[in-house]
Write a structure and sequence with these properties.
Layout: H1 5-29, H2 54-58, H3 61-75, H4 87-109, H5 113-138, H6 141-167, H7 174-193, H8 202-219, H9 221-227, H10 234-255
Helix pairs in contact: 1-7, 3-4, 3-10, 4-5, 5-6, 5-7, 6-7, 8-10
């Protein structure tokens, strides 16, 4: 039976609207969510070379490598198959990944709310740029390009809003949580409902699987540290797994072809 793509478009729009409305309802109904102070306590706090939480710092190197390699490939024409109409989004995505290595390292040297801002800001830039890219490739390049700036502004605002509310004594993570998780909910819906202009869309699915695995490793930080005989913690592995997902996506950009005439 032939798929009715027009009907699928309606389903996709409907599910997107439902998710956005649901996020707004949650935002309104939930009480402000402050940053849990225990978030800054990591299982592996070993100090080497005068660096606190050394392995949580060094495990950010893969972000530096993958982000830098992505930017280098973008500079070389025809190395990556991208939606050139929204080229800036790809630059911002890989720049965000590269800056995560600096922001996360800075945070782990001195964990706290003040330093956490500089960890979350580049991640947010990466999340929003990636969401804009997915919209460009699966829905409309023009729409993805138009949404890039509003997405970036809202994402950065969510981080600074959280930081400001923390400094006022009543932290509120609600906006940041929406920025982090809503695109990760909407993007798979978009990729199922719409057809990409490119082949090798598996790179996005591998990235999302790596993201989920990274969140699991982060949650079980101490358990992983114990299981590995205090060799490496879940949080350190989180960085490596997340960066590996970006690498797999970058590899798919090199292998795929553009089906658009």
């Amino acid at each position: 039976m032939e798929l009715n793509w027009k009907s699928l478009d309606v389903v996709g729009v409907s599910m997107t609207v439902i998710c956005v409305i649901g996020a707004i309802v949650i935002l309104v109904l939930l009480e402000p969510i402050a940053q849990d102070p225990t978030y800054h306590r990591f299982s592996d706090s070993r100090t080497f070379w005068h660096t606190l939480n050394c392995w949580n710092v060094l495990s950010n190197i893969p972000f530096l490598l993958t982000g830098g390699w992505g930017l280098l490939q973008l500079r070389r024409s025809n190395r990556l198959q991208i939606a050139h109409e929204n080229r800036l989004a790809y630059w911002l995505f890989f720049a965000g990944v590269l800056l995560v290595s600096a922001g996360s390292s800075y945070y782990h040297v001195d964990p706290g709310n003040e330093s956490l801002v500089w960890d979350r800001l580049p991640m947010t830039i990466g999340f929003m740029a990636l969401f804009s890219i997915i919209i460009s490739e699966f829905v409309s390049a023009r729409l993805g390009k138009r949404l890039l700036l509003p997405l970036l502004v809202f994402g950065c605002f969510s981080v600074f809003y959280w930081w400001f509310t923390e400094s006022m004594g009543q932290g509120d993570l609600r906006l940041y949580l929406i920025v982090q998780f809503l695109p990760m909910l909407l993007a798979p819906i978009i990729m199922v409902v719409y057809r990409s202009r490119f082949t090798h869309t598996s790179g996005y699915w591998l990235l999302f699987l790596a993201y989920i695995a990274a969140k699991v490793l982060e949650y079980y930080d101490g358990a992983v540290y114990s299981l590995t005989g205090n060799v490496i913690s879940g949080h350190s592995l989180k960085h490596i797994v997340a960066a590996s997902g970006v690498f797999l996506l970058l590899r798919s950009y090199q292998l795929r072809t553009d089906n658009q005439p």
